[in-house]
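Assemble and predict.
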Amino acid sequence: MKTITHQNKNLTVRDLVTTGIFCAVFLVLMMLGAGLLAPNPVLTFLMPCAVALLTGPAYMLLIAKVPKHGPVIILGVVIGLLMFVTGMYWMWSIALVLLGIAADLIAGAGRFRNITLNIVSSVIFSLNPMGSYLMLWINRDSYFSYMVGKGTEQSYVDTMGATAQNWMLPAMIASIIVTGLISAIAGKILLKKQFEKAGMTA
Amino acid sequence: MVIIKNISFRYKGSSGLNLQNVNLEVQDGECILLSGRSGCGKTTLLRMINGLIPHYYEGEIEGQVFVNGNDVEKMKMYEIAEQIGTVYQNPRSQFFNIDTDSEILFGIENMAYPREELKVRFTGTVKETGVKNLLGKNLFHLSGGEKQKIAFASVYAMQPDIYLLDEPSANLDAHAVKRLQKQICALKRLGKTIIITEHRLYYLKEIVDRVIRLEEGRVCGDYPASDFFVLPDETRVQKGLRLLDRNAELPFQKSSSQKKSGHKKCTLDVVNVSAGYKKNPVIRNISFEASEGEIIGIAGHNGAGKSTLAETLCGLNRILEGHIFYKGNELKEKQRCALGYMVFQDVDYELFADSVRNECAYGMSGIDAGKISRILEKLNLDDYEECHPALLSGGQKQRLAVAVGMLCNKKILIFDEPTSGLDYDSMMRVCDLIRMLAEEGNIIFIVTHDYEFACNVCNRILVMDQGQLKEDYEITVKTRKKMTELLL
Amino acid sequence: MNFLKVKVDKKRQGFIKLDPRTLFLLILFSNIAIFISSSIYSEFILMASILLLCACCGILGFSLKMGATYFIFVLLDILISRYFGDSWMIYVAVGIRFIRKVIPAGTLGAALIQTVRVSEIMVSFSKLLVPRTITIPLTVLLRYFPSIGEDRRAIKKAMAMRGLRGGFFMHPVRTIECFYVPMMMSASRRADELSCAAITRGIENPKKRTTLTEVRFRTADYTCMLCAAAVTVLCIRGGSIW
């Protein structure tokens, strides 16, 4: 008898389809988190945390199903494209692509089998919504200074700009890292408890 | 022409051979039926022919398959795709696009035909497969039968010489099966070679030329259709085959009232119930009574309100009007939820835990371990206690869902299409299970299209039509004919 | 956020019909304009022209709705920063401004989804030389999206029947397990079935895929691009004009 194995380093159609399906799952979870908080002016800054909290397991399972270079980049590019086409901040799309590449390289360093590196890569990727909030800092002038006419109160700009710069950025990043970590670890537990036992991983 | 030469195959991770030394020749224009029990290797054989083995599935292989003179193993998948078209069992998971037009075009666009050719083929296909009314629609808004029509059209547009149909009727109602029958006939008239695997056999009687029977991966019978469809009933039952002839006389269950000499106590009383969407109720003015131990079939076309009725009975829908009483007490939504339990067609959605035993205890505090063991033993699941539910077979998953229902002390059990795609033996096992549940004093409802199954297990049939209860009768010699017309 | 409920049945038809690529470009332009613009008046002009375009594409009602939303956000922004400018309400104001700035491009995005068929979007991607490693997952994503909704409904029913109600806040871990496990199991299985169905219909063909759907630039497209460029320039120079 002849043994047939498909050890293919490149992405096969099956890998692409699997990636597509998990992109859909990822996006749904992302929208669940974002949809709850993003349109709310008070809570909008918590949105990245909610997204990070929900998406970890989907990310971990994607890596476990397709342990190759590529799927995470595709995840970033595809979601970035959709974000762009639907008119979200374009910096978010760019962040998705760049962090996708970074996350791919990190997980790839452990050949996608090293759980710790996979968790780190998941956390890194979950920083992506920061892309849209970075506007607040990079583009500070346009953001804080223009009000109706020339009646901008300088004090307003100063307090807002200063405080925001001082603590909001690090606070947001730190909170995303914490929630992302919780989520990725939860993903790892689910993976061990359920999906590996059920023979669902590659 | 398809030639299969000395094929043996074992999937990666499988303990035994899935196909053993299979030899088969299919002539051009022939229509062949592959029959046999679940797991006999029918589907594996189809995969050998359309190249998924060895190009997609891994395993060990011996022998060769030739399609129109070419060795399948040496061809690329997209070359095979031009000659062989495959329609799969589950219409829900075989489409690649979200709209019908793109789906029909999918195959021919992959083949990279120039735009004029695409146009010609598209219009031709739409005309010849009769899908004009489905164009420009969202595939998710179509019924199972309509989805299958689109799947067919997509393959048809590629104009292959050989069609492989993998249990095409598994998810269809009687109406859609008749349409499928016509479609296969039309292909045959075009001189196409057709290979079908199927459990539901009667509708193929006048279509197929030859029947191959497989058992445990071997070919163990090659009959001309004229011999096969007249096999005596005992022989076909012994070989695990489903109904061969729609005119055959089937034994049926004595209804409970006949059994208990007219003594019948009404336990469940449904009065004038309407449910569905507020402005637009899906079911209207449903009234009937049911007593303990009854097994009641719910039949009707797609969209007639069968599943809405079933869901309403177990508290998944709000009642807009009317009342449901159980042992004289009116049931509120939550109580219906506590009493009713539905075993889905897709049982996977009902299983959450990481082992069979944990599944039984899931979400229930203080459940008696001994009780779990007893019920698992009763349902033949005691050997799998530590197994992950996803690794069980379809029948075992179904029994596990039933075990959960029994542990929750449910009194109204509802089965949604429990026998779609089952062979005779598995169907009989489901019948035994359901009878056992009925004897324990539960009321059983079964949403089904399966005539043979209904004859075997139901005492009574509720016929739904356009959201209303059209008929309600016990199955007797007199009502048989009505039932045959309904389900065949 | 139901922006991915792509419609395939009936597309609104206005008196202009744009190539999806034009709309991509317009979205890009409006993003740049918003990014750079430093005058609220130029932002108004941008939003007004987007709303006008939407109305021309046949989604007048939607355009009015978005206009009203935008107006409310601007009003809130002004009110809060005028009268509560030095309290914690500043953060609310920034939040509002932040959302307000998504609205123009978001309106265009929604207009794209509502007026262009999925197949046209896919064709434009392949015309823009997006490789298959992206278009295949993207198609699958759009197609699988509604399936997740179906999964969710079925899981909810199953949970209700087993008395696993109580919601997310009472039992977060259990709720997550109940949703994630069956959803991802079904995702894994569907991936397999879907790949088979695609492979046996020749998706691996290395030849460049052809399409029946045609997209091409028309006069309306060029006009729109010119207008968009003009508005963008206006936004960039906005500060100096006013």
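Chain C touches chain A through 75 residues (CB under 8 Å).
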